[in-house]
Amino acid sequence: MSQEQQKRPQESGHTHQQDPIKYGDVFNVSGELAHKPVKPEDAAMMQSAETRVLGKTQPGGVAAAMQSAATLNEQAGLVGHRDVNEVAGDRGVTVTETQVPGRRIVTESVGGQVVGQYVEATPVQSSRASAVRESAITIGEALEATAQTVGSKPVEQSDAAAIQAAEVRATGSNVIQPGGLAAMAQSAASFNAECQNPQDKIKLADVLTGATAKLPADKAATAQDAEGVASAEARNNPGGATPGGVAASVAAAARLNQNVNV
Q: Is 81 helix (H, G, I), strand (E, B) or coil?
C-alpha cells in the first residue's frame, strides 16, 4: 500500500520534545490543522474509524502514525490522555473506501483534509482473459472516488477545468459533450461563483456521482492523463491542488495502473 501523504513523526525534529508534534509534522496538510497538536482522542477516533470501515487498524497506517505522535506528546506532558483536537472533534475523522473491480481506494481524513490515501487489491471473480482489464482503474472510476472523498466541496473553476481535462482524456475527443460531465461542472462552477449562500452551492458529489455512466467513453488512467488533469487544475488554482480532488484521484489511479502494467 502507498501512504503518500504520511511522514514519520521521528523525522520531524522532535527528538528532544519542547513543542508538541503537530499534524503538519506528520501529514501533508495545511491551514489550521497543520498547526494543531496530535492528541490521544484524535488517534482513538481514527483507530475506531479504521476498524469500522476496514475491519482493523492498518499497520503503519494513519491511525498508527497518529497514535505514535499522540503518545509522544502525552509522555512529554504536552497533552492530556483524554484531550481531543477541536478540529478533529468539530469537523470529524473519516475513513472512506471506493470499490472498483479488483481494488479498493481508501481515503482517510481529519477535519476534512486528506491525511492518507492508498489502494488495496481485492479478489475479482472474472475470467483470466479479463482479469488485467478489470483490474485497471478508469478515469471515470477515479472521478467517482473524488465524489466520495471530497464530494461536499463546492465546485470551483479549478475543479471544472480538471473534470473537463479528465473527460477529454477519457473520451479522446476535444468536443465537450452537451449535458456531459464537463458541461455540468462548468455550469456548476459558474453558478457557485455567483451564489452567496454556501448551502445552495453545487457540490462535487452532485456532478461526479455515477461519473462512469455519464461518460460516453472511458479508459484506464495513465500517467499522461494524470499530468494533463493536474496541469488543468493547477492553472486555475493558484493555491495548489485540492487534496483528494480530481487531479489527486486520477494520479492515484494512474499509479495503481502502472503497478499492474496496464
A: coil
- Alpha carbon distance 104, 118 (integer Å): 8
Q: How far apart are CA 92 and CA 171, in angstroms?
A: 37
How far CA 25 is from CA of 37, 41, 79, 82, in Å, comes to 9, 18, 16, 21
Burial class (CB within 10 angstroms; exposed 0-12, middle 13-18, buried 19+) of 198: exposed
C-alpha cell at 152: 461536499
Pairing of strands 93-100, 103-110: antiparallel
**Are the C-beta atoms of residues 115 and 218 closer than 8 Å to each other?**
no
Taking the C-alpha atoms of residue 38 and residue 29, their distance in angstroms, rounded to an integer, is 13
Burial category of 38 from C-beta neighbours within 10 Å (exposed 0-12, middle 13-18, buried 19 and up): buried
For 172-193, b where at least 16 C-beta lie within 10 A, e where not — what string? eeeeebeebbbbbbbebbeebe
In angstroms and rounded to an integer, the radius of gyration of the C-alpha atoms of the chain is 19
φ and ψ at 141, to 5 degrees? Answer: -65, -35
15 vs 8: CA distance, rounded Å = 12
Quote the distance between the C-alpha of residue 167 and its chain's center. 19
pLDDT in tens, 222-258: 999 999 999 999 888 877 778 889 999 999 889 888 8
What nine digits make up the cell of 72?
Answer: 509522544
**Tens-digit pLDDT profile for residues 168-213:** 999 888 877 778 899 999 999 999 999 989 889 999 999 999 898 8
What is the C-alpha to C-alpha distance for residues 62 and 3, in angstroms, rounded to an integer? 8
